[in-house]
Design a protein that fits this description.
The protein is α/β, with parallel strands linked by helices. The protein is built from 10 helices and 11 strands. It is elongated and about 90 Å long.
C-alpha cells in the first residue's frame, strides 16, 4: 500500500501552475520586445548562437525537479507486508430516525441533534468494536457500512439532517430489516441494533422485524427521543409549526409503549432519552458486557521510505538543467537539435 507520511506538503504543488503561467507571460513579452527590433527570422540569422527553445527546455527541467522535490518532502512510503490482526469486539448498527418529527424541541436542542451528540460520545468509547450507521424515515438507507473507521463515521454523522430522505414516515421495521443484513456473515454473536427514534411508526410491522432479528442472534435496543406529552414540529428552524389538514398544529409524542415492545421482542431493552443523562453511554456499558465475536482486519505494516528514488530522479533533471546552456553549442549548431 502506497502512502505519504507528510501529505500536507503536496499542497505546494499548486504553485507549479502559477510558475508556468508566469513563464509563458514572460516568454510572450520577450517575443514582443524582439519584434520591435525586426523580424524574428532576421534576428536569428544575426545572432546564430541564441536559442529560443533551450530556455523552455531548461524551464521544463526546473518544473519537473521542483515537483519531484515536493513529492520527496511529502515522504512517499510503501507498505511491505499485510498482517491480519485478530480482535474481539461487538458489531453495532445504529438506525437513526431522520423524519421531520425528530426536529421537535422537547429535548434540547432538538431530538435529532441530541441523538447525533449521543452517537458521537459513544464513538469516543469504541475501541475494538465495529459500527454501522443507517438513517430512516419512510424508507431506510445505509449511510456507513459496518466498519472500524470511527473518524469517517463521525464525519458522515455530522452531515445528517431531515432532508436525507424525501419520503416521510417512520418505517422502523424497514430499518431493522436493513440493519439485520448489515452484519458480517461470519460472526454468530455480538450483534446489536440500536434504534433511535420517537417511535411514531406508521409504515410497517417493527414487532415482526424484531422477532426475525432475534432469531438470527441479533439483540435490539431502542432509545426513545422525546417526551410523552409531545411537542410541535418546527418548519425549517422557524417559529412556525407543521399543521394537519384541519389546520391544527401537529404534536409529536414519544410512543414509549411501542418502543418498549420492540426492545422486548428483540431481546434488549428500552431507554428513554432525557436532557440530563447520556442514554447511549449508559446503553454501551450494558452492550460491552456481552459476549464478543472474533473480528478480523487486514492492516499494512512495515512502511518503508521511498523518497530516495525521487531524489535520484530530481538529481538527474538538475544535471540536465545545468548542462543545458542558454546558447547553442557551436559544435552541434548544424545538427539543429533544439529547433
Amino acid at each position: 500500500m502506497f502512502r505519504f507520511e507528510n501529505p500536507d506538503f503536496l499542497y505546494v504543488l499548486f504553485v507549479i501552475p502559477l510558475l508556468i503561467i508566469v513563464f509563458i507571460l514572460k516568454q510572450r513579452d520577450r517575443k514582443k520586445s524582439l519584434k520591435k527590433f525586426g523580424e524574428i527570422s532576421v534576428i536569428s540569422q544575426l545572432m546564430p548562437d541564441i536559442s529560443y527553445n533551450r530556455p523552455v527546455i531548461r524551464f521544463i527541467y526546473i518544473i519537473i525537479t521542483l515537483s519531484i522535490l515536493i513529492i520527496s518532502v511529502a515522504r512517499p512510503q510503501l507498505g511491505t507486508k499485510v498482517e491480519e490482526v485478530k480482535r474481539e469486539g461487538i458489531e453495532i448498527v445504529i438506525a437513526l430516525d431522520v423524519s421531520n418529527s425528530m426536529l421537535s424541541e422537547d429535548i434540547v436542542p432538538n431530538r435529532l441533534e441530541k441523538a447525533k451528540r449521543e452517537i458521537s460520545r459513544m464513538l469516543n468509547k469504541l475501541k475494538e468494536d465495529k459500527i454501522g450507521l443507517i438513517v430512516f424515515a419512510g424508507e431506510s438507507y445505509t449511510l456507513v457500512p459496518i466498519t472500524t473507521d470511527y473518524s469517517a463515521t463521525k464525519l458522515f454523522l455530522s452531515s445528517i439532517n431531515t432532508d436525507f430522505i424525501q419520503k416521510q414516515g417512520t418505517a422502523i421495521g424497514s430499518a431493522i430489516d436493513l440493519a439485520s443484513k448489515s452484519f458480517s456473515p461470519k460472526n454468530d454473536k455480538g450483534k446489536v441494533i440500536i434504534i433511535i427514534t420517537d417511535g411514531e411508526n406508521h409504515e410497517d410491522n417493527p414487532i415482526l422485524a424484531a422477532q426475525k432479528a432475534k432469531e438470527k442472534g441479533i439483540i435490539i435496543y431502542t432509545i426513545g427521543m422525546g417526551k410523552s406529552e409531545g411537542a410541535p414540529i418546527p418548519i425549517n428552524n422557524s417559529s412556525s409549526f407543521r399543521k394537519n389538514k384541519e389546520g391544527n398544529v401537529i404534536i409529536s409524542k414519544l410512543d414509549e409503549t411501542s418502543l418498549s415492545k420492540i426492545a422486548s421482542e428483540g431481546g434488549g431493552k428500552f431507554i428513554r432519552a432525557s436532557n440530563s443523562r447520556s442514554s447511549l453511554s449508559e446503553l454501551y456499558n450494558d452492550i460491552n458486557s456481552m459476549e464478543k465475536s472474533k473480528l478480523e482486519s487486514k492492516v499494512y505494516s512495515g512502511y518503508n521510505d521511498r523518497f530516495q528514488y525521487f531524489l535520484v530522479v530530481a538529481l538527474i533533471f538538475i544535471i540536465l538543467e545545468f548542462t543545458t546552456l542558454e546558447r547553442k553549442n557551436r559544435w552541434f549548431r548544424k545538427l539543429n537539435l533544439f529547433n
